[in-house]
Input
Amino acid sequence: MTATGTDSNTITGLEAARWGGGVRENSVMGALSFALGQTDTGASYAFLMGVSGAAFRFQLAQPDWCPSSPHAGCGFNCADQVTEALPFTCRAVGLPEDGEQRVERAREAVVASIDRGVPALYRHEEESLVVGYAEGGERVLLRGYHKHEAGYEEKPLAELLSSWAGMGVLEPGDAQSREAAIERSLELAVELADTPAFDRYASGFAAFERWIEDLRDEAAFEGEPQALFMKGLTNAHCFASLADARAAAVEYLREVAPELDAERAARARAAADIYAQEVELLCARPPYEVAPAPWHLQGKPWTQEKREAQAQLLEQALGLERKAVDALRTKR
Output
């Protein structure tokens, strides 16, 4: 629903939409799920996570940890994968390479999208939604990533595009058949687990092994405060994102299993049951206790004892990961 003025327009109904901070941790898929909810191509967060491969992916930047590790566009690009699986394209606008036309092109595209009733995507470090505009698009309304309280925030468009950030607008496009997209996602689950790295990101089983090894390297946590802050932030974000992704994998596999042949359906359900065990393991204690972000520590040290406990938990999770992926492997 939109509320329209002479030089303004606002999509209502998304004031309380949430992603990030414990809900729909993958900001790209979270924001996209709400944007698509305003179209005829609605898709659940779990379906977007599954069909893009994000539900099955785990990455860890190497050699230095980075909070970008779970982002859908880093390493193996799940953001590109999802656009291949659904009948839309996401046109990038307002990028630095647009030069002097940068803000104007973004303004025109965002206004047109809002007038169609479809939020635009604001792509910075994480994904937010542009849900309205004022002053003919010189100012925009945001529903931001990680925002807990209800409401929209108004910002000058030029301010949002003052760095490397950009906008994405959803437009109709061609897609794989649903059957082909689902089949590809199950292949991806195996491929992402077996592939040791994408660019600078360790991937799959190898990423789990590096994570465990790095947590046990006590010397690596004796650096400068800023470096330790980034390690703690990365660790907490990766842990929460892993639990969220595998919960989405459970939901996705159970949703698509009835669309598969009997043998593949049985494997999908078996994998879902194993991933459910992994989620239960990862969520047995609050994430901030297992993998605390720096602010969760409240000035207390992130001890080697705590990191070792997490490493042992991840070893158990890795065992379940291997079993789940083996259940999805195509038998020869």
In short: Residues 178-328 form one domain. The chain has twelve helices and eleven strands. The mean pLDDT is 93.
